[in-house]
Design a protein that fits this description.
Shape: elongated
CATH superfamily of the largest domain: Response regulator
Number of strands: 7
Oligomer: single chain
Helix content: 25-40%
Structural class: alpha/beta
Number of domains: 2
CATH topology of the largest domain: Rossmann fold
CATH architecture of the largest domain: 3-Layer(aba) Sandwich
Length: 214
């Protein structure tokens, strides 16, 4: 599983850092490196652009995994450069941004937009695998999530727009319920296609979401 990200427009990064002339840059050696949005090369390019824009870059580091305890370790190792900065620009997913924010009181600014948590289907091709809805029905849909596989996020289908196994929203995309049907047929469980799934209960895990494990 990977956090898929894309870089914000540089103008947005520059706007967020208006009035903050000394910056420290953090990248991520895992997901953002894989996505080519926050690895060594991207951090280097961001450093150059910020310097061209008149910023003083006090330092830059690519944390092996920006969303875990390595963040605290690397911040401590770069303590002087971090303290000298007026803001921190993070080239990692939103989890990485929030992890950095736990340890610092100064502004922590995201340079990336987090798109979704995905699985790799083939080299370089990722798809959203889970909506984290708290009401998993994969056991009845042959391991295919209709919320993420269906453009309309339907729990019951197919809709009237499916055409020869393709989706009316995107004719290049397989209909999620055709995929579910074929998988259930292979398993000898086609009767599950007739099972009605009630509308999602959005109060199952209301926001802000949290779980306490004792």
């Amino acid at each position: 599983m990977k956090s898929l990200t894309r870089q914000k427009r540089f103008e947005e990064v520059k706007r967020m850092s208006d009035g903050l002339d000394r910056v420290f840059i953090i990248g991520c050696g895992t997901c953002a490196t894989m996505a080519k949005t926050g690895g060594v090369e991207e951090v280097g390019a961001m450093k150059a652009r910020l310097q061209e824009a008149g910023k003083l870059v006090t330092g830059a580091v690519v944390i092996p995994t920006a969303c875990d305890e390595m963040t605290a370790v690397l911040l401590e190792e770069n303590k002087k450069a971090v303290e000298d900065a007026r803001c921190i620009i993070v080239m990692a997913c939103a989890l990485g941004v929030q992890q950095v924010n736990l340890y610092l009181s100064k502004p922590v600014l995201p340079a990336l937009d987090t798109l979704f948590i995905g699985m790799e289907k083939s080299p370089g091709y990722f798809f959203e695998a889970c909506d984290q809805c708290g009401q998993c029905i994969l056991g009845e849909t042959a391991g295919i999530c209709p919320l993420t596989a269906c453009h309309k996020g339907l729990l019951n289908g197919p809709c009237g727009g499916t055409d020869k196994g393709k989706c009316e929203v995107d004719p290049e995309k397989d209909c999620a319920f055709t995929l579910i049907y074929e998988r259930l047929r292979e398993q000898g469980r086609l009767d599950l296609m007739r099972r009605y799934h009630p509308p999602r209960n959005h109060q199952v895990l209301p926001r802000p979401r949290e779980v306490r494990i004792s």
